[in-house]
Amino acid sequence: MKIYTKNLQKISLSALLVLILGACGGSTSSGESNTNKNLQTEGTTSLQNTSSGTSAESLQKENKNLYAGTFETTAPAEDVTSSDNALFIAEGDKGVEVIQIGYKDKIEHNVITTITGINASKVSLSEDQTTLYVQNREGFINVYDIQDIHAPRKVKILTKDSIQTNPVSHNGIYEYVPNEKSGMTIYDISNPSNKQMISKFQETAVYALVLVDQGTKGLAATGADGIALLDLGDPEHIHKTGTFPMEGKTLGVSINKTSGLLFVANGDLGIKVFNLNLFLDHLR
Questions:
Q1: Over 37-55, what HEC string results?
Q2: Residue 118 and residue 136: Cα distance in Å, rounded?
Q3: What is Dmax (Cα atoms) for the chain?
Q4: 14-283: CATH architecture
Q5: In angstroms, how far is CA 99 from the centroid of its own chain?
Q6: Within 13 Å of residue 275, how many CA atoms lie on the same side as its CB?
Q7: Hey, where are the domains in the chain?
Q8: Which pLDDT does position 31 carry in this prediction?
């Protein structure tokens, strides 16, 4: 039986002194931050063997600056989204775990609260970070006011199609809709009342997507195949350009521009944390 630790461990990340100058500025999908190019970590994440035959251990040593650690979660992490100083983790029938993150001489993580009474599969935030959207198993969106992060307040329930929670291109024209094992569907939403499907991407599964490189590329959580780098330059011909293998299932991704960190919802293995810039360098 898998046992999950309720209290999150503090990850010793002494070299993260260069990581954060402050906890202001929000989460983002742009990935253009140059923060922490030389981030030093303990490398708590392990990898599967790569197709070239390189061992997980040697790959981890080679990229020791890549890893920022692991957060244990109460239940399997199915999705994650980040604000200035908090993570919101969808954990199935355990609801949504809200974790406060402090940046000093090391990253500290403390459970603020847990949103219960919902079988949470997906989480996302409004642009101003005052509203949390939680998708349940039936596909409905539960909307929470999180202006008081210690006491999220449910305000309404919406249908999935009544609100935009999927990634949208920087020009606002294209919507990327993850279809999990079926890949991803791309829509032209220049006319919101009559959006048009323009292509389907089926080269790999896509459980979640964040945009990087000014929206020209995306990092996709692919389930059993780790994190994939996708070229989004031509919406009609999206293709995979690289893969970062990981143990377990990768089900969600979120970027915090302020910290220069990439958070990955890794199922039974909790939340894995990476230096975003070095992660992208590895995949390019």
A1: CCCCCCCCCCCCCCCCCCC
A2: 7
A3: 52
A4: 7 Propeller (2.130)
A5: 14
A6: 27
A7: 14-283
A8: 42
